[in-house]
Amino acid sequence: MSASIDKDPIGAWEDLQSHLKKYIKSAFGTNSKSFEEERERLLNTPGVFFQEAFLEMLPTYASGKKLDELSIKDLP
Questions:
Q1: Domain boundaries, the chain
Q2: Which of 4, 5, 38, 67 is least buried, going by the fewest C-beta atoms within 10 A?
């Protein structure tokens, strides 16, 4: 994959789709032109093979102490 998910999640998702489509077409190829065309149409139809990408952006939280650094004073 060329896109990094932490820097370009949409690009990474598009790369993943492309690679999976290429795998399906190469691993399950046929000699039927009409079948291949119909499969290509289905693979490119939203919701058939892939769902819409759902991204949830999470804030970065400040790091706290490690477990072995905690003392009784740190407890509520």
A1: 9-74
A2: 67
User: Which amino acid type is present at position 69?
Assistant: E
What would the pLDDT profile of 5-26 be if each residue is shown by its tens digit?
778 888 888 899 999 999 999 9
DSSP code for 75: -
**b/e per residue, 27-47, with b = 16+ CB within 10 A?**
eeeeeeeeeeeebeeeeeeee
3-state helix, strand, coil in the chain (%, to 5): 45, 0, 55
pTM here is: 0.61
Non-local CB neighbours of 40 within 8 Å, separated by 6+ positions: 25
- pLDDT on residue 30: 94
How many residues belong to the chain? 76
Q: What Å distances lie between residue 74 and 54, 63, 66, 71, CA to CA?
A: 37, 14, 11, 5
